[in-house]
Amino acid sequence: MTHPAGGWPATSEHLQLASTVRDAVKSSGELYRLGLGMIASENIVSPAVRDIVSSDLHGRYAEGLPGKRYYQGCDDFDTIEALGIDLAQQVFGASFANIQSVSGTVSNIGALKALAKPGDAITAVSTADGGHISHARMGAVGLRDLNLTTYPWDEERMEPDVDAACKTIREVQPKVALFGQSVFLFPTPLEEMAAAAKEVGASVMYDGAHVLGLIAGGQFQDPLREGADLMTGSSHKTFPGPQGGFLLSSSEDPAFQRRLNNAMFPGVCSSYHLHHVAGKVMALAEFMEYGEAYAKDTVTNAQAFAAALASEGFDVLAEGRGYTASHQVLTRHGDLDSGAGAKAAKQLEDAGIITNMNMLPGDTKALSPSGLRLGVQELTRVGFTPGDMEEVARFYARVLLAGEDPSDVRKDVHALKLNHQTVRYCFNDDGRSGYPE
Ligand SMILES: *Cc1c(COP(=O)(O)O)cnc(C)c1O
Q1: DSSP-derived 3-state class of residue 150
Q2: Is the link from the previous residue into 369 a cis peptide, with omega within 30 of 0?
Q3: 107 CB under 6 A from ligand 1?
């Protein structure tokens, strides 16, 4: 018998669809529970954040700001969002925070809406040098119809060529000087370029999507005190919250702050995913307790991993600068544009190690690059130490240098990972697994 509302029992054909979804979700969870998640933009949330993200707030609306709502039923959420704004200001040392953005890209779209008008000029890092697609014509910059000029790049130092970039800023006189990348090994030397931007009346915007957790933990740079008017970012990369974004500013100007809030709502969001906002607030509370240690351990692990890969015989970028000052490590696996990075990523996946191919300086083809971009933040969160990172580097060498069968290496990968199932740096006294089965 079918229920009059048509809901239950479903026909077997449709039940099959349900189990297809359920099985794939479970299988994806197993991949990361047993394997090594090393994609630099990913992370794992704490059990407390996970509970909130699957709470009733998922189905609710709260347009506006705390105390200024269009719907009833928001009193509890007002408590949450007001607390979150306060915590974000403390954690990032900001005089303004908006925590509504549903992603880093949406943060950037909102920021560019607040800072520029169609036809204005913008300067940013090119995607070939590690800039994000939202900094490009194909992304948010194009959506706002801004005229993009990219900074000259110093391939040795993996950062903008400061003198040449200052010259570019003075010539172009952009409305917005945007900094920050997705391939992000070293802090941006911001102060001089920000000063050049101020000279020509540009707003200085720093996209901290990748490195926000390191910045908040005091381990990378402090853009809001180095000249940035506005910092955007994702809440789920090195910052260990649920998917979402932040808008943060050092400005005390109420008119500017209002412009930023309006850019988020009604500018680019209606519903802004209350369960994720509440999850961000829990992640901020946890970060206040554990963030500095987590950020420090992440950078230490990245440096240990880079050094271990180099001593195994890999070509690790930026040796002269100590390889990395962030959560990322870059390796080159063959000739430029050879696709060697793509091949290496696939072999590692067969061994249970999840990474991504990446263009490195000199590569021109996004689908057949020579490199890998590796991140250690998730492994750090589940308790990997520098000693563990050396073992991970040996797995890489067995697969990619010694040519061992990846499925043999996978057994050892799984054995190592099974010893690291609990998320650290969070309120997790009951020791629940970070990887729900
Ligand atoms: C990942 C990233 C973004 C986009 O963030 P999403 O949350 O994935 O939308 C924006 N800027 C930079 C520099 C990034 O690396």
Answers
A1: strand
A2: no
A3: no
pLDDT tens profile 295-310: 999 999 999 999 999 9
CATH class of this structure's domain 51-286: alpha beta
Domains 51-286 and 290-417 equal at CATH topology level: no
Measured from the CB, is residue 132 less than 6 Å from ligand 1?
A: yes
Predicted confidence (pLDDT) per residue in 146-176, tens digit = 999 999 999 999 999 999 999 999 999 999 9
Looking at domain 290-417, its CATH architecture is Alpha-Beta Complex (3.90)
pTM here is: 0.96
276 close to ligand 1 (CB < 6 Angstrom): no
Counting from 1 in the atom list of ligand 1, the atom nearest the Cα of 103 is: 7
DSSP symbols for 212-232:
HHHHHTTSS--GGGTT-SEEE
* Banded pLDDT at 10 (limits 50, 70, 90): low
Residue 105 CA: nearest ligand 1 atom is: 9
Domain boundaries defined on the chain: 51-286, 290-417
Q: Is 93 left (phi over 0), alpha (psi -120 to 50) or beta?
A: left
* Span from the CA of 168 to the centroid of ligand 1 (angstroms): 25
Cα distance between residue 280 and residue 143, in whole Å: 27
Residues 212 and 232: their CA atoms lie apart, in Å, by 9
